[in-house]
Design a protein that fits this description.
Blueprint lengths: L3 H13 L8 E3 L2 E3 L5 H11 L4 H8 L1
């Protein structure tokens, strides 16, 4: 995502919902935010319910 401000707001929303995130990093495509803590990943999937099959399959395995 190209907008750091949007990523910062997403990080704040996730943290307000007790989802632990890593720091915001800049990469070739823009900015990235990762959730690596397993309990936070489970919480994210229960609250957000992503529909991307790749990430659903990764989460289930």
């Amino acid at each position: 995502m190209n907008s750091k401000k949007i990523i910062e707001l997403i990080k704040l929303i996730l943290e307000n919902n007790e989802i632990i995130t890593n720091k915001i990093r800049k990469n070739k495509a823009g900015y990235a935010l990762k959730i690596t803590n397993q309990s936070s990943v489970r919480r994210f999937f229960s609250l957000v319910k992503p529909s991307n099959p790749y990430y659903i399959e990764r989460f289930l395995n």
